Amino acid sequence: MPRSTSHTSHTSHTSHTSHTSHTSHTSHTSHGSSDKVASGSAASAVLVTRDAIAGPYAPPPPSFRHYPEDSADNLTLWAPEVRARIADFELSQGLAFTSRPAPGAGGATQYTLWRTETGTTGTPAPVPAEIASFVRPAPEVFARQLDLVEAYADLRSERMNETLVQTETMAPFFAVIADMHESARTWTWEFVSAGHRLAAQLAHRVKPAMAVRRPSTLSAHVQPFIATPAHGSLPSGHATEAHAVATILLGLIRAGTGWGTGPTHFADTLAPQLLRVASRISVNRTVAGVHYPIDSACGAMLGIAVGRMVLARVGALEGEAGGWLFDGRNYDGTQDFRIGTQVDADLSGMTFGLVDADHGQGAWQVGVSGGPAVGTEGVTVLRALYERACAEWAHVA
Fold first, then answer.
1. In 117-150, where do the E strands start and end?
2. Beta bridge partners of 354
3. SS3 27
4. How far apart are alpha carbons 252 and 46 in whole angstroms?
5. Residue 204, CA distances (Å) to 124, 198, 235, 237, 376 in order
6. Does 96 have pLDDT greater than 50?
7. Where is this region: Disordered (predicted)?
8. Which of 125, 156, 371, 382 has the highest local Cβ count within 10 Å?
9. What sign has the CA pseudo-torsion 347, 353, 357, 360?
10. C-alpha span between 311 and 389 (Å, rounded)
11. Would the pLDDT of 21 be above 50?
């Protein structure tokens, strides 16, 4: 997975190609590549050697063939960062962001992320599929949420180290749960990282539309122990990214292990652990003082919706993927963020919400659009990454 892209105060972390360890491996470009002979004395030595051994030029036979056109069979021929860019392009095809009056009284605006499908003939034939919609909560909601931000400050000493690590990367926290050693899960990292980057991109499109002020701009008592990112608070980028990663991993491992078709202890125990760590990463941002709990709630919804869309794009999700709604008008501001950990084998049982003793679970509306399923056209490289990633889990019981 890439470094976390949800905090622009760390500006070098916002590039989707600057991956660290436990990433999509796009930093591993020097493994056996000609880059190692491109500098200084090494290049000079290679030039001298070529002059000494090459001999007369011998042209290739006229019958030579190029690689197959647009074929997944070429996947291993391309550098990891090239695969990452192609996967990013495939996932971003047809994305759109719109606004319209929200249903009901009050004059609120509803913002929606869409994906338009392409017809099987290869000619763009837009058929809109809703990914997620958002209605901003009222200002008084955030004023009440400050009480929770203040309460979470008591955990700062306990959570400081992990929170600081998570400003750089959340990958190790997922890696230890899913036994994702880099050398054994190369394709898994690449596939999950593509979804991670998409989740970050979409969160950063929603943020300026919601235009929610950070907790530290409402009270001088907040005093975050990390730099407050220079973008809107809702949805939380960390929550979006973490829940997208958890969802994609669940779908990938489900397909690779046959989870749901027989006893698979690893996958059954994996699901709640992945969701719990995604939730903890989210909550740590409130502990740090840079997010309200409702930011995590909105981010969790978006992350899971994006994760399901990514799985649908490669044919790994049964049924429709999109059409989730976060309506901030449903919350009075006193609810904390909690996420459920019961997940059915088809990923249909994901439950999450804002919870407190008085208000119970505030559920998002799921499947509100009733739109078409997200199609699998135009994802040659992404599909190939997915299939290779699945194979890495075939032996897991």
1. 128-135
2. 337, 362
3. coil
4. 44
5. 26, 10, 9, 7, 25
6. yes
7. 1-42
8. 382
9. negative
10. 12
11. no
> Using alpha carbons only, how large is the chain's radius of gyration in Å?
23
Which range marks the domain in which residue 296 is found?
80-391
Please measure the distance between the N-terminal and C-terminal CA atoms of the chain and give it in whole angstroms.
25
Model confidence at 81: pLDDT above 70? yes
Residue 258 confidence (pLDDT): 65
> If you search the block for the tokens 């890696």, which residue do you land on?
175
Q: CA-CA distance, 360 to 354, in Å (whole number)?
A: 8
| Number of domain units in the chain | 1
* 352-356 and 336-339 beta bridge pairing: antiparallel
Q: Which two tokens stand for residue 331?
A: 């919350």
**279 in a structural domain:** yes
Q: Which two tokens stand for residue 222?
A: 């907040």
Whether 150 shows a pLDDT value over 80: the answer reads: yes
How many whole angstroms separate alpha carbon 228 and alpha carbon 223?
Answer: 9
- Note the pLDDT of residue 359: 36
**Residue range 234-262: mean pLDDT, rounded:** 84
Entry pTM = 0.84
The verdict on residue 15 lying in a domain is no
Q: Which residue has the higher pLDDT, 171 or 268?
A: 171
User: Which DSSP category does 225 fall into?
Assistant: S
CATH number assigned to the domain comprising residue 267 = 1.20.144.10
Q: Which residues pair with 115 in a beta bridge?
A: 95, 129
pLDDT of amino acid 365: 52
* Residue 75 forms part of a structural domain: no
Q: What is the pLDDT of residue 30?
A: 41
Match 């955030």 to its residue by tokens: 142
Specify the DSSP element, H or E, that contains 227. none
Is residue 221 classed as helix, strand or coil in its secondary structure? coil
Contact between residue 240 and residue 306 where contact means Cβ atoms under 8 Å apart: yes
CA angle 213/218/220 to nearest 5° reads: 130
Contact yes or no for 233/42 (Cβ under 8 A): no
DSSP secondary structure letters along 347-393: STT--EEEEETTTEEEPPB-S-S--PPPP-TT-HHHHHHHHHHHHTT
- In this predicted model, what pLDDT tens digit does every residue of 295-348 receive, in sequence order? 998 998 899 889 988 998 898 876 556 678 888 888 888 888 877 654 554 455
Average pLDDT over residues 242-256: 88
In SS3 terms, 156-188 reads as HHHHHHHHHHHHHCCHHHHHHHHCCCCCCCHHH
The C-alpha atoms of residue 313 and residue 1 are separated, in whole angstroms, by 19
